[in-house]
Amino acid sequence: MAASGRHVGHHLHRNGRFLTSNLEPLWGRRNFGWTPALRQQAAEANKESTENIVIPRKKTWSKEAVLEALASTVSSNPTAYKYQFQDDPYLSPRSSTEFSLFLFAHESGRSAAKYFINNNPKFFTKDFAEPHIPCLMPETVSLVLEEVSEEALKERITLRKVKASVDMYDQLLQAGTAVSIETTHNLLDLICLYCDREPVEGGGPQTEDTEPGEGVKKRKIRFQQSLVSPKCTWEENNNAERLFNVLPERDTRCYSALIRGMAKHGAYEKAFSMYTGLLNERLKADIHIFNALIISAPNVREKYTERWELINELLTHMKEQEVRPNLLTFNNVLQALKRCGTVAKSKSLQTLYEMKALGIAPSLTTYSYILEIFSRTAGVVQTTSNMLPEIMSELSGKSFTCQGPNDGAFFINTMKMCLESIDLEQGYKIQSLLECGENWRLLGASFHQGIYYGTFFRLLCEREHIDVVLKWYKKLIPTHFYPNSQGLGKLLQALDAGNRLDLLPQIWQDIRTLHHEDKSHLVEELLSLMTRDKHSPEVQESFAACALDVKGVFEIVAHGPPLEWSPSSLKNITSLLLRANKTQQAWEVLQLFKSKNRIPPNQLLDDFLSACHSSGSAERALDLVRLSAAFDLPATAELAKRTLAEFQLTEEQRAILSDLVSVTEFSD
């Protein structure tokens, strides 16, 4: 057996492979039970197993796979700032104001860099980036082709040079050069998109006339303008209409460009008139035309029923022309229904059922519009108690991808509904949906994240146990948002309801860190809660230290004017200092009543006199009576009598107090 083994090994070593003709006699001589029938069965089984082997394809990993694997092993740190602020911890924002300023500074820096790169591409000809990211490379914004040709026209259209594109097109027509229908379509799209004007920064490549930093300002103006009713900016007989009228042949794409442009820029009546012209030409509309007309329908009809009839007529035309609706079509229907009054409630559900019948999955924007429709046609409490639970049960555990710019508004709108109806259960479900997969990305900008988490935190303060509120407080701040003064006021109320007023000094430090110490209503609320009840000596000591810190805020604020002293703030700080046996500091605050022309309450004077008696300070008690006499308070005589009866005084002090009693009683 050993010899045979060495023989086989030697043969394998020499030839590098098995030979069946050499192995079979070996098995036969050793008699291992391999009969011809068994050998045939084994060969057939081996053949079958060989045929069933599936060789796996090579696994291709993305360039970010290692980073994603490492990121999955690290949990988020709730005490850390957001990742975009960790490059320079010293400049990390600590308040919502600094947060906005930091983001604007980042945006301004990016705009300045983009302006320089796009206008000086010759300095950025080499690419060392790995992986290569085309959107971060300099864009070509200068014209290269100067001759009159269709290629030059395409270049101007690609660079979104509206005026230059129109001029080149006119020159081609004057030269008798035919322009392809595809280039004509692209030119009409460009003109209608920008309403025959040059695009500003944020809507296309930055032009030479655009200064760095103007993009932020213009985007802010456009956002403010979007909050009011749209105005018509479509000019009569502009270049789009002029070019459209001189076209020898007009197809659906040409009509689509003008109709969408008119609907986008407020010329709703002209858009429907253009659609009528399309039908007269016996052309079929495309999905983009119907989507633009549906969203414009409420602007051309006054009555709610007429608006819905027009929308229904457009949907009927879609069916007749065999145009299949898409997700945007149904979302536009729901958005238009928000302006259809009482008709919207039933028609919105009918629209949702039609979507599902066609196999179109609703997006978060769809559900957001439905909730808005029900909140306008019914009370908010009724909407959140009936409609929202059904929607959340349907969306629970699902991960979504962004299918529209308004998808993130679903989380903000639904959380506001929960806050208005104080529905904590649905609020938790919305938060769970946001944490599912990468749904949190749908919130978009940090500004929207602040609105959502601020609303969620206020809901927690309204209904949740204080221990849970503090847990979320540590988890959300400052990683996810910076609370405003209203949110911190809700937190103070939650501490009061949960009987955890001992944490007020700690919350005060957070208020200072977040730069809300200049909010008078917040400071007054804090002092009132600390003064209302008496606590253990340790807590009173921490309250007194906090009161001294608040006193410093009234004297000077690092980033704004100091607060105005009010009688309640002076009283509360003095009471807190007296309870901690800080008589000297309490006296300094008490003297501010006179300098600020504020009248101290009688109870505060009695408490201060009791504190003087406990410490045996007769001189301070005499100063208190003098202070009361300076204000001509009726309680001066009673304070003087108490001082004469309770303190060991000198003859001179007794004489002074006796005179004060006589003068006060005479004046009374």
Can you give me a brief rundown of this structure?
With 668 residues, the chain is mostly helical. It has helices at 2-15, 20-30, 36-52, 65-72, 96-119, 150-158, 162-174, 181-193, 214-226, 239-246, 252-264, 268-280, 287-296, 304-320, 327-337, 343-357, 364-377, 380-395, 409-421, 424-435, 446-463, 466-476, 485-497, 504-513, 520-532, 537-555, 567-579, 583-595, 602-615, 618-630, 636-646, 651-667. Residues 1-34, 202-217, 219-229 and 378-385 have low confidence and may be disordered.
Your description of this structure?
- With 668 residues, this protein is mainly alpha-helical.
- Among the domains are: 1-33; 138-205 and 232-283.
- It contains 32 helices and no strands.
- Helix 15 (327-337) packs parallel to helix 17 and helix 19 (409-421) runs antiparallel to helix 20 (424-435).
- The longest helix is centred in the first third of the chain and has 24 residues, at 96-119.
- The protein is elongated and about 120 Å long.
- The termini are far apart.
- Residues 1-34, 202-217, 219-229 and 378-385 have low confidence and may be disordered.
